[in-house]
Each structure stands twice: as structure tokens, then as C-alpha cells.
Amino acid sequence: RKEVEQDPGPFNVPEGATVAFNCTYSNSASQSFFWYRQDCRKEPKLLMSVYSSGNEDGRFTAQLNRASQYISLLIRDSKLSDSATYLCVVKRGQGGKLIFGQGTELSVKP
Amino acid sequence: DVKVTQSSRYLVKRTGEKVFLECVQDMDHENMFWYRQDPGLGLRLIYFSYDVKMKEKGDIPEGYSVSREKKERFSLILESASTNQTSMYLCASSRGQASYGYTFGSGTRLTVV
User: Fold this and answer.
1) What is the pLDDT at residue B97?
2) HEC string of B14-69?
């Protein structure tokens, strides 16, 4: 079983839709949690950190449930420019090794 | 902005060659990492380093070694390149605390023929 598992993709949604990505992690020693975004043929870039209290950044809302070891990302009012692969990431260990999920591809259509 | 620079964007090497991939960061980060990314397998950690001259094996270190002689530079070495090492290689750096994310370089697409 992979340490970080994400919804299989791809997600194909119309502009303006709300889309949710889910992720589970297996190592309870994980310390920090993130969502990264990766555009085609580009490097991953940090989208947002995820906190137990939940956090929002514009149209993006991230949630963490430590008891269930579950992370989510909600995107409201999807834009064409949101099309990318979204990577669920957990961090553990001294200095913090990042463990990546396989990613979920999102395609927003006009 | 933190900048992580990888020396080559595309590289083609022959089987058996010794290959050096260079990574430099300009923000005095303690931690540096090398990943490879393959379709269907995601990003996998090869080696990482928490300080100068320190190195630790990641999940797939076989066939690779690393060097960190200076804080800002982390080199990945393929001792004898093989075709199954054809991949996208991504370098990243971060501050020491666990709560910080990484900054990635733009990647090196290595093809071994």
C-alpha cells in the first residue's frame, strides 16, 4: 500500500464547477501536509499548506483530519487555468522528507 | 524568491556513462533532495541531505550517489547510466523545519540510450 494515496483521475469538469480531491496517508508520524500543483512538463509548486483547523486561499480550501489521516482540497468556481495535476504531500522525519501521492489530473473545460 | 537551478533541462547519455546532475539553491537552505518522476509512479525520493557533507538514502538509491561539498550545491551521480534511469530528475530544497514545503528546480529530463 502506498504511503500517500489519492483519488484516481482524471477529473474533467466544466468551468465554474466545484471539485474535490481526497487523499489518505498511512503514517501517523507525518508532521506537515501540503497540496502541490504541477503543470504539464513543469516542476511541482506549492499550492498551500494544510492545517487541522482547515484553511482557505481564495477559491481553494484545504482540510486535514488527523484522526482519520485524511486530507482534502476543494476548488470552487473552477477556471481553465486550474487545469493541472494536484499532488497530495505529507512531510515527516528530521528536516522533513516529502512523500508524494501520485497526483490527480484536473482538466477544466469551457 | 528562492531559486533552485538545475544545470541542464535535457540530457542524452549513453549506457555505461557516468552522469552528473547538478543542483544549486540560493537561499541558504539546509535541506536538499533529489527525486525522479516517472509516469504512473509519481515522485520517488532518491537521496537527500540535511547539511553539508551529509547524505541519506531515500527510497530508490540503487545506481545513484550524491555529493554535497557546499551548502548550496547538491549533485546526483549516476555511476553507470542504464536505460531504466531514463526519467525526469527533480531537485528540491527547504529550510530545516518540518513545517516548510519545498522549492523545486525545473527538472532535468535524462534519456539514456
Assistant:
1) 64
2) CCCCCEEECEEECCCCCEEEEEEEECCCEEEEEEEECCCCCCEECCCCCCEEEEEE
Residue B31 Cα distances to A1, A3, B34, B57, B92, angstroms: 27, 22, 11, 13, 8
Q: Does A96 contact B97 at a Cβ distance shorter than 8 Å?
A: yes
Which residue in chain B has the smallest CA separation from A91?
A: B98
Q: Would strands B108-112 and B87-94 be described as parallel, antiparallel, or unpaired? A: antiparallel
List, for residues A34-69, the tens digit of each pLDDT value.
999 999 989 999 999 998 888 999 999 999 999 999
pLDDT number for residue B99:
57
Chain B residues with CB-CB distance to A31 below 8 A: 98-99
pLDDT score, position B45: 93
Tell if the CB–CB gap between B103 and A89 is shorter than 8 Å.
no
The C-alpha cell of A57 is what?
Answer: 486561499
